[in-house]
């Protein structure tokens, strides 16, 4: 991990001074994933704070925004401070977000009437500056709207995370349009990590595994990764059969037997 | 469209007396009347429900009432006290419901609820809340909501139950009401009756000039007010204890920048007034008295008491665009109806521990713009049933120490209600081999479970024996689902073994 989020008031001060020196534009920090393969592909060595990032799901995951929501929850969990989560449909299940490391005390939900209100709350949250991350679930994100969000994020140094989630498959075409987001990801569920065989008639469900595509990255190249989903601290991991060690924790084994 | 609520308290003088006497008050079954003097006669001025049930009517001679009920409790009527009490009630309604409230003597309140109902889940919610709260403190109350003060007033008094009138239907409903619904003096009502006019609709059908000639301008004025043809501004309740700042303009103003400039000026004055008393505002009303006698109003609420000029101005100016200055604004009044003591918190003495970020200003901005109930935090509730396992907290509530159990995986999206699925399952204890949901058939490759969740008999009788067995299923593509089967597979009483999909994992 190269740069940690600020842990003391001195570092906050240092950051403030750096911001003053940068002439009003927040230099922003970097939030590394802690997975060397991904961090090496990102120009700053991690997700840029003070910027807008877009995450969509693949296939049905795009309609329900499941894997993308967990991916975003894992990222938000590793920031500091409160998180604002703006939705139009209140179908998020908070216990699952806690299992991805995002403590419920930190999250303030905004249940907006429509997408325009989501974008307003999203932008207001980014502009405020006191939040760790702002998450917005939107189907459409125009160039103008995304540029506004990106500028608000740059100004305050807050991490903006847009979950692109559709009501109908037909709206997926909008994801092809360019936006001002710094990175754009697509997260698709893969069959889970196989568990050691057990004397059971069906195989148990292992730790969720994702196919994570970095579709767009400003000043960087596209890439794709096969990863294991967030653990209870929001961290991703390389699958055990790809890395040289077993990453499935004993807890997951126990659960599979129960 | 204006939404005016009229609250009618049919037995206000006796209810007020009972409340004032507290534990010494006679029981509700004891007939109680209040007696006042008209000339040299002592007459019943107010009678409670129990005495009205025994044929005592206001206006009856006191001696006659005593003759009808020997054990009658009699108190003196206190008209000034009733009027003052109504003013106090209006102030309470001002704090609780809407920025424009006035006493409607002798026995009611009028509330301009335009744009204030969303906090109570709509028009009906506000009416229910109003009537229920009055009932809880011992006031008999009826309420109606309509487009005009006149029609709401008539409907609250002459319709039996709390009435909610859809916009622009008020006029049709009041045409069938008797002429006394129009807030006319008794001799006008009697005069109309002598002419054979008994309902509002009949007055409406007559030519107006002869009526005006005979009864004066009062009759047509009340008629026009009830039908919304002339404006009837509500003069909001004022009280010396309300902290307020006021700005009167020599020339009417209307430009948005001018309004914003004076908003800032008023916020300065108000904050200074709050500071001398050591208070912070929880609610603020900014009223714009227009030259055409209408009043436009902005109400904002804050999560914590504040008296920060910049923050208050920001919150108010955010809503300025909703104000229609019409031909101009003559007076601007900024009041703080709800205040709380505000004391300074010492700054953190330790530089090394960073202070928690304060986002209450952001929460104020968003909840004033979107509506207060749209912002919330979620916290664990005492229940294993998934749809009941979280409760909503206010966004500024203190952190809660409780955690959801981490042992079992939970889906990131929970369907609003479980959806029925068709399954192929081998044995009662086994997860399904395949299932179809929303028309797509999926083969189950991996599964986990069951996690048994029992019904909560203390909430509903139907859940006494209910059992749900939850499974986590993974299909060939790697998508993971949370399904459950009703029943434990042994005893039919626990459920009918149908399968439902309840959530989606990521």
Automatic annotation (TrEMBL), chain A:
It comes from the Bacteria. SUPFAM superfamilies: P-loop containing nucleoside triphosphate hydrolases. This is Damage-inducible protein.
UniProtKB/TrEMBL annotation, chain B:
One of its GO terms (biological process) is DNA repair. InterPro entries: DNA/RNA_pol_sf, SulA_CellDiv_inhibitor, UmuC. Residues 30-152 form the UmuC domain. Keywords: DNA damage. Signal peptide: none annotated. The keyword Plastid does not apply. It comes from the Bacteria. The keyword DNA damage applies. PANTHER family: BLR3025 PROTEIN, BLR3025 PROTEIN-RELATED. This is DNA polymerase Y family protein. It comes from Brevundimonas goettingensis.
